[in-house]
Structure to design on (454 residues):
């Protein structure tokens, strides 16, 4: 049942067709953002091409990513996991996935690849000029966000619908604005509904360790509604 | 010397005129975003009004906030703290502060107040529809971001230019999208250049604890340039 909710699949970048319902193409609310656009640095394109070749070999899979969930799929999610009292207060007409809510090149440019057999997710990330913190560097909150997305996807691939319970990030070196980095995440342990994931953020040449993090995610339970 | 760098003051919301240089009004790149706009929920306006009255009494101070740092002030910051080799690679023309890079009402709406005597910073935050994570709820990365901003400002008020070294967040309850929350931060300890800050995120009525976090910030040292 957990794996049948289209909202989770769409929110975490799963391809159309993997969810319970199928939708006509005219209902697609926006394009797949996990594909190259004009703003991508050559390093990001190169990494993308390398992993697309790995996908052809079969062990890795690219994860599509969308700004909006379809209204029907949101309804599916809410029916399963959200307390009905809360729903009246929730405006969804303008809702967009946080890390996809920027124009091309200005915010989060990224693509994720998963290896389900090895319980790993890799994210190639380019932080645009609207993610600035200290002048000339990517904001610590933006780094936390892409770490949350990557590790959350790693947990989701193993356990279905999850929410973040803990995020613990060590920032080792600042990331220059607009540079490309590689985030490698790994599911370390599962205890009941708890999914423990770790990750590191490195430069493309692997020589610089920018950040390390651990994350804990809790698998959602339809019997314990979100309130 | 640390307190004289205008870039830090602007990045962390200090008023114009508190930095070393003074600038003519025609150079102001954008407006102060830490003031009410059409999108603010009545709860956010009420909290703002309450704390503006406290400001009149003298113990609290509202912190203005801007999208962009002035080019001259960025140059000041880079001269002090950044390795010259890195500067060639850094595009700043489009750079904007991450948490101010959304249109009014769609992203991070917030105002911070500080009490320097008590080493506290309070942030009133309304997360807009473009900060969605799980359908209907604010993204964990967006929550991490506003926590980083609030605790970072708390450290900055005590120590000047700082960067995040650790962020450890426990997410207790999901925050419904577009709701208003209160983030209270407190400087707990200073050890050399290390500034330890803690905070919690609660509902306006104080009844719901959404998140708790600890943060560690390192005061920047002009003798150890960012590379």
């Amino acid at each position: 049942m957990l794996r049948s909710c289209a909202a989770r699949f769409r929110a975490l970048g799963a391809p159309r067709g993997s969810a319970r319902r199928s939708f006509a193409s005219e209902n697609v609310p926006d394009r797949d953002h996990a594909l190259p656009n004009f703003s991508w640095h050559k390093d990001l394109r190169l990494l993308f091409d390398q992993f697309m070749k790995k996908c052809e070999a079969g062990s890795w899979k690219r994860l599509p990513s969308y700004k909006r969930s379809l209204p029907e799929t949101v309804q599916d999610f809410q029916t399963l996991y959200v307390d009905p009292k809360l729903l009246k207060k929730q405006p969804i007409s303008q809702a967009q996935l946080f890390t996809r809510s920027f124009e091309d090149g200005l915010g989060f440019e990224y693509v994720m690849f998963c290896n389900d057999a090895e319980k790993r997710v890799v994210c190639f990330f380019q932080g645009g000029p609207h993610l600035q913190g200290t002048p000339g560097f990517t904001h610590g909150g933006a780094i936390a966000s892409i770490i949350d997305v990557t590790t959350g996807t790693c947990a989701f691939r193993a356990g279905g619908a999850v929410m973040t319970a803990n995020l613990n990030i060590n920032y080792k070196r600042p990331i220059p604005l607009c540079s490309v980095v590689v985030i490698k995440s790994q599911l370390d342990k599962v205890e009941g509904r708890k999914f423990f994931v770790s990750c590191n953020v490195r430069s493309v040449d692997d020589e610089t360790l920018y950040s390390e993090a651990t994350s804990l995610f809790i698998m959602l339970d339809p019997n314990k509604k979100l309130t």
